[in-house]
Amino acid sequence: MKYLLLLFMSISSSIHAQTVILSRFSATTTSTGVLLSWTLDTGSLCNGISVYRGTDSIAIAEIHHIPGVCGDLSKAVTYTFQDSLPPESATYFYRLELGPRNFSQAVSVSFNALSNNSARWQPHPLVFPAKLVYRSTKEGISMLQLLNLYGQPIWESSSENGEFELQRGQIEKGTYIWKLYLPDHSGLLTGKLIVAD
Fold first, then answer.
1. At which of 73, 96, 111 does a domain end?
2. Which of 30-44, 111-125, 147-161 has the least mean pLDDT?
């Protein structure tokens, strides 16, 4: 029992002493909130992760906690958290606490909730990876179509989760027309898309 206690104390102290390297931390808006994503580098360990939110980078409050050991000695680990309750129409700052008193830099994002039967590209002008987020009054499959300025279709995809993702290589730099057919013929949204990347 004594040896097990010493082993636990050794592991616990090594987690607290470990340098945590955050290789990526991003915040993007979705149709219903803000999606946070972050990656801990290989070899990074911490004891619990707390997510903080505020309207500036200093006055922040904890909104979520992931208990237990985080990270991995043998591989990079990616985490996500969907903040589905931010008040509408404001810029928010998010920080992570990777173990006691080990705070990340803040990332910021502007959130404006979508009204029904509406959509927006983020970012726009578009740089990859990019998303079209939408909200529909009906559930089901939506169809997104991209056309060149001659009206010729060049790319299309379907979704039923409120967003489409566009990656580098799927379309070239330029200006396009997009058409979003909402589920069950409930609406057609269209607009101009500028690909800057």
1. 111
2. 111-125
